[in-house]
């Protein structure tokens, strides 16, 4: 079986070898691009982690066994009206809502908490 291309006869085995060579070249170039992209990603990741490391080291070390520092004030927005429940119960409810929703407690805004009695 022969393939005719512009009055030249090309044997089928030679055509398959040419196609195989082209496929190998394409996949070889794709593999080289994959390796280069992977290496550049690792290089950029290590460079960015090196930039972040000195910032962490620059923080002053806390004093050892001295007077414990007072807790920093948390941002508070608005007021909370408690209707029929104590502060401890309200704090527990707010913590449960924060945990279940995955939203930090500092980002939640509670307007009121009302105790609902079952009848």
What are the defining features of this structure?
two-stranded antiparallel ribbon; 2 helices; two-stranded parallel ribbon; elongated; 2 domains; single chain
Describe this structure in words.
This protein is mainly alpha-helical and 119 residues long. The chain folds into 2 domains: 2-57; 81-114, no CATH class. The chain is 51% helix and 12% strand. The strands form 2 sheets. It has a two-stranded antiparallel sheet with strand order 1-2. Strand 1 and strand 2 (8-11) form a beta hairpin. Residues 63-67 have low confidence and may be disordered.
Spans of at least 5 consecutive residues with low confidence: 63-67
Strand order of the largest sheet: 1-2
Radius of gyration: 35 Å
Order of helices and strands: EEHEHE
Main sheet overview: 2 strands, antiparallel
Q: Into which percent range does the helicity of residues fall?
A: 40-55%
Mean pLDDT: 78
Beta-strand residue fraction: 5-15%
Number of domains: 2
Instruction: Write down how many β-strands occur, each being a DSSP E stretch of 2 or more residues.
Output: 4
The rough form would be described as: elongated
Counting H and I runs of at least 4 residues, what is the number of helices?
Answer: 2
- Structure class: mainly alpha
What distance separates the N and C termini?
A: 93 Å
């Amino acid at each position: 079986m022969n393939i005719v291309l512009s009055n030249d006869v090309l044997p089928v085995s030679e055509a398959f070898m040419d196609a195989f060579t082209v496929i190998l070249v394409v996949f070889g170039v794709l593999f080289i691009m994959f390796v280069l992209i992977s290496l550049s990603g690792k290089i950029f990741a290590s460079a960015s982690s090196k930039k972040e490391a000195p910032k962490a080291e620059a923080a002053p070390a806390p004093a050892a066994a001295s007077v414990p520092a007072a807790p920093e004030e948390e941002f508070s927005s608005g007021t909370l009206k408690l209707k029929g429940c104590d502060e401890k119960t309200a704090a527990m409810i707010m913590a449960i809502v924060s945990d279940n929703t995955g939203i930090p407690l500092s980002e939640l805004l509670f307007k009121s908490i009302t105790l609902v009695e079952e009848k």
